[in-house]
Design brief:
This protein has a three-stranded antiparallel beta sheet with strand order 1-3-2. It has five helices and three strands; from the N terminus they run ααβααββα. It has helices at 6-13, 16-27, 32-39, 43-55, 74-104; strands at 30-31, 59-64, 67-72. α1 (6-13) packs antiparallel against α4 and α2 crosses α4. The protein has a single domain, classed as Winged helix-like DNA-binding domain superfamily/Winged helix DNA-binding domain (Arc Repressor Mutant, subunit A, Orthogonal Bundle).
Length: 105
């Protein structure tokens, strides 16, 4: 997988159904049909959500025989963590500078 598009990661996680899938897969790998059951949506709809999650490195699917098994993939989460870290550092510096200015008075 190439460079992760952080915008696509945020867009993927912006959907509540996809967040529910990620939450479920965080506990353990699962088949597509097992993911569909508690969400009360079709297997086709779950497969479409999984395609979005897989395209941005959050989920990995593998077909063995007739069963497609899904698991969490770290690449998208690593990119998200790096983006947050970079922005946190920037904002901490800005807030520290503002604090210095306010302390001068």
């Amino acid at each position: 997988m190439g460079k992760i598009d952080i915008g696509r990661v945020f867009a993927a996680l912006g959907d509540p159904t996809r967040r529910a899938i990620v939450d479920k897969l965080s506990a353990a790998p699962s088949s597509v049909s097992r993911l569909a059951e508690p969400l009360d949506i079709t297997v086709t709809a779950v497969a479409q959500h999984l395609a979005v999650l897989e395209s941005c490195g959050l989920v990995k699917t593998q077909k063995i025989g007739r069963v497609r098994t899904c698991r969490i993939e770290s690449a998208g989460f690593d990119a998200l963590q790096a983006w947050i870290g970079e922005h946190r550092t920037m904002w901490e510096r800005r807030l520290d500078a503002l604090g210095d200015v306010l302390d001068e008075d």
